[in-house]
Amino acid sequence: MKKVFVFVIFLFAVHQICAQDKTYKCEKVYDAVKLIDAEKYDEAIAMLRECEKIDPQEYTYPYEIALAFTYNKKYNKAIDQLLKIKNYENLRADYYQLLGNNYDYLEKPEKAIAIYDEGLKKFPNAGRLYLERGVVFEFEKKYDEAIASYEKGMRVEPNYPSNYYRAGRLFMNSQNTMKGLIYGEIFVNLERTTKRTKEISKMLFDTYKTAIKIENQNKVQIAFCKSVQIDVSDVNNEKLPYCMVFEKNILFSVIGHDSFSLASFAKMRERFLKEYYLKDIKNYPNILIEFQKKMEDNNVFNAYNHYLFQIGDEQGFDAWQTANSAEYDKFVDWYTKTENGLEMNQKGVFISDQIK
Prior knowledge:
By secondary structure, this protein is mostly helical. The protein has a domain at 196-211 and 226-356. The chain has 20 helices and two strands. It has helices at 16-19, 28-37, 41-54, 60-71, 75-84, 93-105, 109-122, 127-139, 143-156, 162-172, 178-190, 195-211, 232-236, 242-254, 262-279, 287-297, 301-308, 314-323, 325-335, 351-354; strands at 212-216, 219-222. It has a two-stranded antiparallel ribbon with strand order 1-2. Strand 1 (212-216) and strand 2 (219-222) form a beta hairpin. The two termini are 42 Å apart.
């Protein structure tokens, strides 16, 4: 039985040589990066200094030096290093991200925001810079500003996963969880098999379980949004706030169930999809739900639901996978093909607009 696509931990690195497909005049840069990953920062920096002498115009070497200082918590040295190369012609958005991060680590949030904004003037479609702005606002407990920045990042770079991750966590930890569930599921599809994926898998399951209270088959309570604001112009157009539509279809999907488990929730999700397509897909199009329909049409949606929420009920997932290995293998084969990935970059279509 295939064991691929059970969530595993994966660590990210932000090295320039990983972000660029190019060759370097100083091949020692690859060894230097390995030293940084091994936390041998002084050795790495010495090697990168040698590379600077060989190719003084290459931006990667001083950037990696600054990264080594950052990992070693020498933030002022990292800033000094980055400021020396501020006028290089081949700077990338990562430069402003790293520089702003170091100011943030020094508890200078206003300076960090100024750096991110400066970077956005040069790289207006850099979702990572909107992410970093949002993180600063989030830690200052300016949650509305944080959400606005994350959602702007989704608009300019729709396939960049981290804005969905941060926004999803914020909403799922609030009393208005619907958007968090949408953003969280999108994130799991854009960034697969990472430590963060495991975290969001559990959050998604737990958030749904908390919001759906089943006393018996005839008595159910659901609560995904504490308050819903109705725009009078939308009422005239017979368009309701998205959360009302979402909750209505959840309610229909829960009918007939007397408990909440991974197995029962997978069935609820299938019913939700059918109900949504019966009456609401035309007036309330949704990129994520359209992707779910694609999976349903390919007979992999049930397996996907078990995969998606597996960390919320690991025993339930293991038991289901053991009993349904052929179905799960079919899903894995389909889901891992590039052409079957969730594509958020659809011209003029933004998920944040669709779920207002």
